[in-house]
């Protein structure tokens, strides 16, 4: 196995797992290469693995997406159907998508530029944000324990609650803050049970993943992969898609019976260890 293919396998697996587990894909994909002395991944590779994880979430929740599409269609054609759960949920997801779309448009390029110019500083920043993710997960579980009532279904979310989950997703533009962790924490805080919060989080993820991939495509033409790179890209895509699909299924089963404290503990530990390992200057070429 060549070094490029090995890196593609590792980074594809990292993207697939950490995109959906509440431990931050962006943080891991910045910190791990920096600690290992690997070069930053190419824009082409970033596009490929983003589309792979988008494929995983769309495929896993394909029945939900078909139901959402039917609900959206009914809402457009029938005024009487607009207040039904099938129509309300697509509208809530659309509202919750807006804050992250705005944050991505304003901040994605500055974060990318800092990553390219000072990866060490960005890795340290991501490590600190992993600690923030741990705080969010812990606080949401503590608040959920004190809550006296829970939503019967996601469509009962209020517009303000959906907007709050959307703002939580927007925070994940900062590398190291887990998108799924922030949105699940917000979902728990506004009254959803863990499984509902996870489902809403994953349904909310697909438009952002597709949008992030589309944004990256703007620079895709500048990086035409060579024939030697095609194998690495294929490995990264397949691994990210398969690992992502498996991790979604595992997490949905896990949250039915267990709290998120284990992920909070992991992000605390990963953040502290990363800060310690990154305390010195970057190694020379």
Architecture overview:
With 285 residues, the chain is an all-alpha fold. The protein has one domain (3-277). Helix content is 76%, strand content 0%.
Structural features:
mainly alpha; 11 helices; 0% strand
Straight-line distance between termini: 23 Å
Helix tally equals: 11
What's the overall geometry? globular
Overall average residue pLDDT? 86
What's the story with the biggest beta sheet? Answer: none
Topology:
Elements: H1 3-18, H2 25-36, H3 43-60, H4 62-77, H5 85-117, H6 119-146, H7 159-171, H8 179-189, H9 194-217, H10 227-255, H11 261-277
Helix pairs in contact: 1-2, 1-3, 1-10, 2-6, 3-9, 3-10, 4-5, 5-6, 5-7, 5-9, 6-8, 6-11, 7-8, 8-9, 9-10
What's the gist of this structure?
This protein is mainly α and 285 residues long. It has 11 helices and no strands.
